[in-house]
Amino acid sequence: MRAARVLLAAAVVAVTVSGGLFAASRNDTADAAIGGITWSDEFNGAAGSSVDPAKWKFDIGGSGFGNDERQYYTNSTSNVSMDGQGHLAITARKENPANYQCHYGTCQYTSGRILTADKFSQTYGRFEASIKIPRGQGIWPAFWMLGGNSWPNTGEIDIMENVGKAPNTVYGTVHGPGYSGAEGIGGNRTLGFPLADGFHNYRVDWSPNLIVWYLDGSEYFRVTPSNLGGDQWVFDHNFFMILNVAVGGYWPGYPDGTTQFPQTMLVDYVRVSAWNNDGGGTTPPPTSGATMLKSNFSGRCIDIPNASAVDGARLQLWDCNNSNAQKWSFASNGTLQAMGKCMDPAGGALTNGTPIQLVTCNGNPVQRFTLSGAGDLVNVSANKCVDVKDWNNANGAQLQLWDCGGTSNQKWTKA
């Protein structure tokens, strides 16, 4: 959550850094790199019951959590409970039933913050929730993840944040060393109506060197190491999830006369899926074994012409035949290799139309590729997709780099 809502010794000023939209709206049906569900909570408990202690724990207190927040987080079912209709309810109230003390004096508000730390964490995969957010000036709901207790060095992935003063906008952000607080790297999407009017699906698909944000299945932001300006990428280890509703803070501002209480965030479900069909788990997936990469557009596979592993061989599509010229391995250094050499953007160029070729692996970061959860084969340095040139579905069709647009000629499946 903005400025890493952990117990920090020093306050971190929280502001939004919004990026442009990196791709057109998508309705993803090609989930080639996403496996089965590894963890979920459907919140089907009886009305007034607490969360499942095998899945969630509570953060408790009124320290301000590094953001000058005004609520006291409790473990009371007055603030966190099932509603009996298949939802989790996290409710912020303007009350102080137990004379709670906050960093600014006697607390004015109570709310809830639950997390899966020490219960569940995972590296890579799909993390999603269906949420109806609360509304109002100074109200700050969030669904987010932390990579440990050494923020910002262990990283933060904000899947969904909203501030009441921008009721129509969802924000997605990463924070890490050198881009914490005001230096967070993020994007947003604004609808024509308040998000609080109904349930929405908030999601990230997270794979090596790539995180993609979605609102209701439509991509609105993506980040790779190339977006960090040389700062360290810290998103290759376990992260746990957090749900909370904060009141006040540097970024959202504070409740005023227009803010009505109580305010409740309803959560229909939270689900986590595996990455790369490896069954999930709590460690990064190993280097992938050799696999063919089939175009969803033509049904043909990425192929080295004439099985000639010479530098500069222009990659093409060809009928899938399980030959060595079509067997690709995702190496641990981020390269995509076949016949002992690497997939490469010709000349190291990262512009639209750059041909895709085979050359000797040379350690250049431009040779890193990753297969996203949506089936995009992404060049990490360019943040562009491997694209079938001119929508050619015949044998010999050429490949190029192009802006990721979610089209079928950019979708790939391991075969």
Q: What is the helical fraction, as a range of percent?
A: under 10%
Number of helices: 0
First-residue to last-residue Cα separation: 38 Å
Total count of strands: 33
Percent of residues in beta strands:
35-45%
* Architecture per CATH nomenclature, i.e. the level-2 architecture of the largest domain: Sandwich
CATH top level of the largest domain? Mainly Beta
Overall tally of domains: 2
Shape: elongated
Structural class: mainly beta
Mean pLDDT: 88
Oligomer state of the chains in this structure: single chain
Unreliable segments of 5+ consecutive residues: 2-30, 277-288
Instruction: Specify Rg, calculated over alpha carbons.
Output: 23 Å
Query: Main beta sheet, described?
Result: 8 strands, mixed
CATH topology of the largest domain: Jelly Rolls
> How are strands sequenced across the largest beta sheet?
1-15-14-13-12-19-10-3
Describe the protein.
A hairpin with a 2-residue loop joins strand 7 and strand 8. The N terminus is likely disordered. The two termini are 38 Å apart. The chain is elongated. The chain has 2 domains: 258 residues, Sandwich (Jelly Rolls); 122 residues, Trefoil (Acidic Fibroblast Growth Factor, subunit A) (Trefoil). The protein is built from no helices and 33 strands. It is mostly beta strands. An 8-stranded mixed sheet has the order 1-15-14-13-12-19-10-3, with no helix packed on it. Strands 2, 5, 6, 11, 16, 17, 18 and 20 form an 8-stranded antiparallel sheet that branches.
